[in-house]
Amino acid sequence: MPEPILYGYWRSSAAYRVRIALNLKGITATAAPVDLRQGEQRGQAYRAMAPAGLVPMWEEPGFRLGQSLAIIAYLDERYPDPPLLPQDPRLRAACREIAYTIACDIHPLGNLRVLEKLGADLGADGAAKTAWAAGWITAGFDAIEARLAETAGAHAIGDRVTLADICLVPQTYNARRFEVDLSPYPRIVAADAAARALAPFAAAAPEHQPGSG
């Protein structure tokens, strides 16, 4: 059977999440770069495969899937070891809360297409775009830091890596890109550092991906 393909962009935090999940589960996939800065995601060829024109996209024989959390959930169900969610129902819910805060509340507002729209329609310059993205990251991190006060151990949820860490590490990478002051978030910083010290996270980092730089 042909190897599955992960279409992504080296600095996309959504694609970064999926790379981490693949590495944690030991799943090999062919990386297919889509250059967002050049607009390849809007091209006819890519849109024919991914109608939303977004990355990441997962492709295997007879099946394509977009949206990073959907891809990760699919991989977790198909390859259940190691599990990416805690066993305890309350901790599972808290884990999802962190993931959804990032994927639904923070990330979309700092996405490339939103920042481009701010520039095109409202004349926002680079500094204004950075401030916009940083403001939404800060709002989300305030909530996540409070949650980690209840759940964090060695990682975001106890002492095992979970979906929360998979989402938190790429968003913390983005926070640094957008010059967010992380000093109010010691638990986030600690969870990020603990996860990034692990080989599956380190190998997924943007600087190690095709097209980076």
Tell me about this structure.
By secondary structure, the protein is of the alpha+beta class. It folds into two domains: 5-82, Glutaredoxin; 89-200, Glutathione S-transferase Yfyf (Class Pi), Chain A, domain 2, CATH 1.20.1050. Helices cover 55% and strands 8% of the residues. The chain has helices at residues 13-25, 44-49, 68-78, 89-106, 112-122, 126-151, 163-177, 186-196, 199-204; strands at 5-8, 30-33, 57-60, 63-66. The chain has a four-stranded mixed beta sheet, covered by helices on one side. It is globular. It starts with a strand and ends in a 9-residue tail after the last helix.
Beta strands, count = 4
**Shape, please?**
globular
Tally the helices.
9
- Which bin fits the share of residues in helices? 40-55%
User: What is the rounded Rg?
Assistant: 17 Å
Mean pLDDT: 96
What's the number of structural domains? 2
User: What is the helix/strand order?
Assistant: EHEHEEHHHHHHH
CATH fold category name of the largest domain = Glutathione S-transferase Yfyf (Class Pi), Chain A, domain 2
The name of the CATH architecture of the largest domain is: Up-down Bundle
Distance between the termini: 33 Å
Tell me the strand percentage band.
Answer: 5-15%
Query: What class would the helix/strand composition place it in?
Result: alpha+beta
How does the major sheet shape up?
A: 4 strands, mixed
CATH class of the largest domain: Mainly Alpha
Strand order, biggest sheet?
Answer: 2-1-3-4
Low-confidence stretches are none
Q: Based on the structure, what is the oligomeric state of the protein chains?
A: single chain
